């Protein structure tokens, strides 16, 4: 290919642009309000521009983009990427193909199968099956579809109208994707029965059993329990062993949403927190979260081999011909609800190949050690108060209580003020580019902060102390301004 | 960051690896059967390896991967990528973030909105809304969900059991994703009513109207017509204007699956083929197909502003807080069924910014010219026979009839032999790395070839002639071996 308008020369510039725009001295964020940013950026595409101008526009976009690879990006459950994973993502993009058939993705198909096999062994379901999906919410859909098809195979042809009234269970701290899934799949959100959590965010399993019984007595069919291994906010892990017992007793499908906490399975030390996961009927795990695979990298696993294919196949004649010249059982696309499907397994394979089981184990242990340090520090630091004192996943949740509010009567007004101050502190932290941190209310808890930790970049204790200091400083500045 | 086991130095190697493994002298494919390829590749990840060994393993994987960027890759409706698009994909991966909130993706959010606006103008629905989705099949799900919610908002809470019996319509040549969608969403595949197509692959609109009336008379609710602008095999475009009239008459939602043919809208000359698309209620288009954005780049559009949000929102408190310090209407994530969502708009923006409307117009005209040349050549070349003689999208479908079969009685056995020989020719073409071409049966047609053309790499007439020659040569070789 020639250069110039063919754009090939632009590819040569990408690495430099990325390196320069992510350089260590660039701020985490240069926040601009939407309308202001619209006025700054030259986004119109009507008239083409030359490479020089394009580079300028791209750099401007990146200047105002968040540098999620910095240690002070703690806004979400993802963050910096594993450089091996990023290398894999780049290569997969360059070798642009779809995961559906062996003929167009021979090596990538084997890699997806190998990674699924390795992960199935890791979770303790060696004979299961799985697929990479475009995110945890889609994995939730896969789980519900599999459970429904297993219980009522007629649903595929006849739809939900042919089924009895079906209910699914999830904890109040679980991810909202189950509600979206219940809507999309035609269950309706009312079919989602929400089980209370204890103070540490774990499903109250006694309530689960009672609720299942109640639903059965009301003539409804309990289809699916969504246990969570790593809730979004507190990082809580439900008691999977007891959930498994209950599911077995009432013949309910057990799904484990381990999108966040699944990464703990990589650690010899911490994997016991997910004990019972090996009894699940289906599991989702997002290596694009804690583990640092570039977005998207999401795994859906299912115990019963063949079920994914049976449930989802449509046997398209133009794609999954049975008269091909090779073993078409390697055409895995008909297990998927997607047609074209990105090569998300390759980046994970590269990370894993580079680090091996032990390398990933070390990163997991380190991330948990960092979170432990953070929790211990928060526990004894004046002005900080933990929301939950049990470290399950590497989430540390706490309120910052400004000096002038300490040792006051913690009545409704006091909490209302905390609720207001927390987002204000976050605003100041963001505006000053010191830290991007999550905040959230939860159940009866007013707005609090969540510091969650991920594999990349690797943090030291000093980083954590800096973050807490920044929160403290901004917390006091904010209250000064309010007084 | 330091190098070595942190993997940053590996990123520096990626461009070279990609360039070398995609060099012009590498074969399109080095086909190995699955078991043989498994034996060659070192895929196990249990033990980590050093960078040198990793590079070796990666190169081996790429050696046996298909070079989809070559002109002789005509196996699917995607192919080579636009280098600007690939640059955009690499940058988006490096700036790893999710499209859900403005705070973590400020510039990327504005870019998605800008691209949606530009594309909405292009299709003629300037006041509509949209979202980038992970592929055309997901866009089909979005379409059905939007239509269902619009007609029966109670479905969100109550599910499909609260609805009357609902049916949807699609042509027999349309994409199989509507069947998967009907299963997943709880309609059941029986609710998909298949309308016949004419010899050029277009929906017989007279039948559509009759079928709608019949369903109404049987007490079922006609919800959704899926018109296709560019069927997978023949590239047929349904008569969108008439479909729109019928949909309006019976108050049925009109969806246009323009995943493949939507790219023709980029051309002043060819856009009239999609006349009527501006009357649709929803549209899907995959710029990762003809236009050459790297996989995945898929757009779902809807006429009614606000509907996507209303239908899909779950208002997660931890993510879409309403007490943020900026205008949260820029948090677009709750329009989506996904939570984390890749920055798929950025690569498309880069391509468009580089080329402008006129650059993309030229590429569209060129691809259609190439297809026209191919069709004309096939029409008059001995031994080739067109399946459809009308060029709609840049798909050219034909049988190759080996010499010994020409001017014979074309009875059932003759066609059975053609059906068998076609995949054999494909096998030989693949094994000899001369050409990867699609084949398929369709309706009563026995297996035939499909040459479909995409923007990248830009083909000349000589490329097309080489492909036809390769088919001819392999066609004769195969029959020699069979005789």
TrEMBL record, chains A, B:
InterPro entries: PyrdxlP-dep_de-COase, PyrdxlP-dep_Trfase, PyrdxlP-dep_Trfase_major. Its cofactor is pyridoxal 5'-phosphate. SUPFAM superfamilies: PLP-dependent transferases (SSF53383). CDD domains: DOPA_deC_like (cd06450). Pfam families: Pyridoxal_deC. Keywords: Decarboxylase, Lyase, Pyridoxal phosphate. It comes from the Eukaryota. Belongs to the group II decarboxylase family. This is Glutamate decarboxylase 1-like. It comes from Galleria mellonella (Greater wax moth).
